[in-house]
Write a structure and sequence with these properties.
- The structure is a single chain.
- The strands form six sheets. The chain has a six-stranded mixed β-sheet, covered by helices on one side. It has a four-stranded mixed β-sheet with strand order 8-9-12-20, with helices on one face.
- α4 packs parallel to α5, α7 crosses α8 and α9 runs antiparallel to α10.
- By secondary structure, it is an alpha+beta fold.
- The chain folds into two domains: 124 residues, Creatine Amidinohydrolase, Chain A, domain 1 (3-Layer(aba) Sandwich); 223 residues, Creatinase/methionine aminopeptidase superfamily (Creatine Amidinohydrolase).
- A hairpin with a 6-residue loop joins β13 and β14.
- Bound molecules: zinc ion (2 copies).
- The site of one zinc ion has 5 residues, from loops.
- One zinc ion binds next to loops.
Amino acid sequence: MVKPSELCGRLKGIMEEKGLDALLISKIENVRYLTGFTGTSGFVLVREDNALFITDPRYTQQAKRECEGWEVFELKGKRLSQWMAETIAPKRLGVEQWLTLGSLERMKEHLKDTVFVVVFDVVENMRVSKTEDELKMIKEALRIAEESFKELLSLVKPGVSERDLALELEWLMRKKGAEAVSFSIIVASGARSALPHGVASGKVIEPEELVLFDFGCVHRGYCSDITRVVKLGKVSREEKRVWQAVVDASRAAVEAIENGERSCSRVHKTAEEVLSKYGYNEYFGHGLGHGVGLEIHEKPSLSLLSEDSLVDGCVFTVEPGVYLPGRFGIRIEDMFYLKGDLVRLTSLHSEIIEL
Ligand code: ZN
Ligand code: ZN
């Protein structure tokens, strides 16, 4: 949570620079981050010297309980834009890049003389560096996911479908206190493991197949994200080589960061170079990693095109993968926390798990 007065202070620069007399925060994760509100409908309206939380009658009681230090304004029988037109009538209103074109058109019906100015990532940039409390919640989401995965392993055997394993894993995580899965669980077996986003299907697992699991859960709003690979039988020489390439790429990225590299695109390149040496570069098509927090994918983005930097307090994944079309794929994904030193948050070992 951020105090309203502190928020005004932090956004003063951008509001002055863009000449805004008000700034509307509408993306719900950003609203939650600022106010602590866990409902699904609410806004933060920032002006030069105050910031207000706005919701409708469904959420007023909840907001008063959750949004400590915030003035809660109940919007009743009116659209937000109508209320703004009648009260503050902003000349230049900042909106986030997430506002839909449809919402913007609707707002213009009431705010006819207002100039709308899109601002990018104002709250996302504040969210990059995690507080101790946020870190605790991420660690708990990770702990639940890891414990659940360990329990799931006894059920991974030939004849079981990917979908059943995904459901079991979700069930285990929910039973241990997760609010939700942080994304649709990926269980991809055999040739399907070469699909980087092979969401669990009805396919039944066969003997001697590799099975890739990419999963995570949500604890008090915060996400976890892990990828591990299981082999039903003995790991082949080629599978071992691909795994080694992936692990070496991950290690090289980690070492670069430990040696002070902070450019996300250069960290990505470091990992890619290792895969090139193994001849697997063309089989790695996604970014090396991403920030994790209230959203499963957030800043910083570790990819070739990213302009982000790693900053103190950020939590992110490193997840190189090699996908041999029609054959198999291996990805290992770990979570890290940067605070002076780089701390690996994931505690599961990275070896292919032979069952
Ligand atoms: Zn993942
Ligand atoms: Zn990920």
